[in-house]
Please model this.
Amino acid sequence: MSDLLERLRDRGWRLTAQRRVVAQVLDGDHVHYTADEIHALAVNLLPEISRATVYNTLGELVSLGEVLEVSTDGRAKRYDPNARHAHQHLVCDACGTIRDVHPAGDPLGSLPATERYGFTISGVEVTYRGLCPDCGTA
Amino acid sequence: MSDLLERLRDRGWRLTAQRRVVAQVLDGDHVHYTADEIHALAVNLLPEISRATVYNTLGELVSLGEVLEVSTDGRAKRYDPNARHAHQHLVCDACGTIRDVHPAGDPLGSLPATERYGFTISGVEVTYRGLCPDCGTA
DNA sequence: ATCCAGAATTGGATCTTGTCCAAAACCGAA
DNA sequence: TTCGGTTTTGGACAAGATCCAATTCTGGAT
Model:
């Protein structure tokens, strides 16, 4: 966690109590939260933090490349603090939970030119879908 | 298009003017629309159709497996009438446009057991991201 | 051709997610 | 300690989507 905060200070971030708390909540988990979940967790540590600040801070972390924004279906976006390591996601179709996975194989190469339709391709995402342990046994 | 309508009638669907129009709008395109775009197109053909009906109909088509719901980032969901053929998506990060692609290679196999964390996996999605021809030259 | 029960449609209210703004509070360099 | 510029706040707002009771309509039965 201090890793992240140090990187941010080096980039000129002011270290406010609010930002520290958001960083602390995000730290190192492999199951990702929505902005409102992060807000709820942050409130436990700092009761007066506002929703807008959590959204602002998450947005800045995404811009800086420290956190990834992951969205599934019409649900709320989730924030993945594990932006530095290549990985894929496992999504529960019932409750929306997202987990990181680190598959062995290389994700397929890029698209053949005949399938690009003039697009400039910058990346590939691979998402596995299914039911998490909690929802699967219902 | 009548293919789709016939399959639906076989499953006990009542064929209303509204449903016919939604099916007609969805028919066979490889660039996918949002619900509101579909509503706008439907209004051209049937001025009094309501937004709720378009949402209802799309939801039913998704439940029946005739249409896929595709969502990207915080944007509106898009509807992919091409549910019966395996394919992947090409998404424009600037304007949200989605196109189908039909890559040659098999999408990677399923996840190794050690990476499943108790999930029951039902599918894999592969999405290429980039800029479409219109947005890329800006 | 007509009737009728149940299914579908309507449109407005409502919910959720997320963004925006001006005022107030705060951080940290000097 | 002071001060300027950065952050935070919270309430208003916007977009996407869902819900609901009242109304309309479909299609099988007659």
About this structure: The mean pLDDT of chain B is 86. Residues 88-136 of chain B form a domain with the Dna Ligase; domain 1 fold (CATH 3.30.1490). Chain B has two domains: 2-80, 88-136.
